[in-house]
Each structure stands twice: as C-alpha cells, then as structure tokens.
Amino acid sequence: MTWDGSGGERGRFGADAVEPVAAPAPRSPRIGLALGGGSARGWSHIGAIEVLEESGIHPGVVTGCSIGAVVGGCYAAGQLGLLKTFALSLTKRRVVGLLDLRLGSGLIAGARLRQRLERDLADRRVEHLAVRFASVATDLGSGEEVWLTRGNLVEALRASYALPGVFPPVRLGGRLLMDGTLVNPVPVGLARALGADVVICINLNGDPREAGGPVVLDPDERADEARPAPAPRRRRSWALFRRGRRVPPETPSPGMARVMLDAFNITQDKISRARLAGDPPDVTISPRLAEMGLFEFHRAAEGIELGRQAARAALPAIRATLASAAARV
What we know:
Layout lengths: L1 E2 L5 E2 L20 E5 L7 H12 L6 E5 L1 H10 L3 H9 L3 H7 L12 H11 L10 E8 L5 E4 L4 H8 L9 E3 L2 E5 L8 H6 L4 E5 L20 H4 L29 H23 L4 E3 L14 H29 L1
Parallel strand pairs: 3-4, 3-9, 4-5, 9-10
Antiparallel strand pairs: 1-2, 5-6, 5-8, 7-8
Helix pairs in contact: 1-10, 2-3, 2-6
C-alpha cells in the first residue's frame, strides 16, 4: 500500500504509486591516451592504437604533441587507416617530395604537408570530433604551454608539430605557436583535465637503452683510451639533409641540421622524463625506438610494428589498471 499524502490509503498500483528505482549500472572508467612527440618515431603510435582497439580498449580522450598530435587527431577523426596507408607509402624520395625548402623562420615551409592534411581532414573542427581530442603547442613569445581544444583541426596539428628551425611558427588566436614538445612532450595532465579516469601514455623517448647516468669528464684523458669505442649507431635520419650520404659517427663537425635536431631530441627526452615524473600516467607504453632516426619517415612499417609489440607487452598492466579503476568508479 501507499499513502496519498493526506493520510488516506490508496492501492499499491495506483496512478501516483512510487515504483522502485533500479540501481544505476556501474560506469566504466574513461580511458585517456596521451601520445608523445618524436618525429618519425611517431608512426609507432599507429601500431599501438591498433593493438588497443583490437583488444577492446577504446580511448574516450586523446591528447597529442607534435607527431603524437597528428596521429591522435587522425584517430579522433576516424582517419587512422588513411594515415597508416599514407605512412606506409613513404619512401625516401616521397619524403623529400613533401619538403618545400626555403630560407626564413623554418627550413621547410610546410605547404605541401598542410595541403595533404587539409585534403584528408577537410574542415573538421577539434570540438566536433567523435573522440575528445586536444593538442599541445608552445607560445613562442611567452614560452607558455598552450592547449588547443577548439578550432580547425589541421591548424591545431600544424601548431603542435612546428619544430623550431624546421617549420615556421603558426599564428592562432593572436599567438605565434611552435612545437609542443618544448614544454610538454607527453601530455598526460591534459588527458586528465579532459576527464580521463585512466591515462595510458605512449612515450617515444622512453627506450631503456637510451638511459644513462652522468659522465665525469677528464679533459686531459684521450677518449679512445678512457673507454672502448662504442658500436657504430645508424644515422640514416640525416640522409635527407645530406643527399643520401650517411654521416659517420666519428665526424668531428656535424652539419647544422644534425646538431639542431640532435640537440632538440636530447632536450625533448629530458623534458619528457621530468614531466612524467611529476605527473605520471597510469600505464606507459615505451616502444624500442632507439635505432630509429627522427627523420626516417620511410621506415613506417618498422615503426608501426615496434608500436604493436610495445602495446602487446603492456596489455596485462593496462587490463589490471582498468579493472582496479572500474572498482573505484
């Protein structure tokens, strides 16, 4: 029986009867995916995402920086397959064909790459994508970290990958924007800010073979006597700037492009380690990319496979983390 509010008793199934309310179904944790920068090494993001999707792990939030922004933006727009086809079609000659060298604020104007992105992504806007997406850029004037959560998708990607000295800065919202890896190479915090309960990051600079402690240098000690000569490391990434001629590791005076990009890579690695230590993800995927050069875009098949291998290795940790998060939600 129920009561009508005035003290009168009415039938249990009267018009105003209050029915029991079923308990709400438990909410699944929202998965965030933070894709790091690393130039050509970023093709491994494609393989890692494929493994996650094949395993039933579907990110609801994707953030990216530099090449991570390009892959993440294409994924959020439903165009990852198209990007993969493009990446696998690249040869050294085709990579050179995408470059439009010029003198100015960058060695490469980027018009050909921009046209390719505009053709494939049309007029999509960041805020209208099926998956929540944002990219990271750096304000050239103030050095501030800039989150691009709205606006034209292609422009948001271009601002995030505008590598200093290589691509010119992109003007958006009254700011000149450069590559986001200068301030946040792996945007974990941005994924959390967009509502992710669990954040998986793909760090392109996390290969353990590259880690090492500080070296104490004796200027009077000959290098060849102090330690054995290291095994030669492939430097094919500079073939694009050296007309296909490999630069040997022992070259005493490397070219400007090699110095600039090697220095940028070192800086990016150090910033990544510091940022991830202060704002760690729940799970890190670290493809073994130490032997892949930053400008070896023609090695997409190898990069994609290395991403798949790293993601498969991380699946047990991902599943355990999601199960723990689901119990807390």
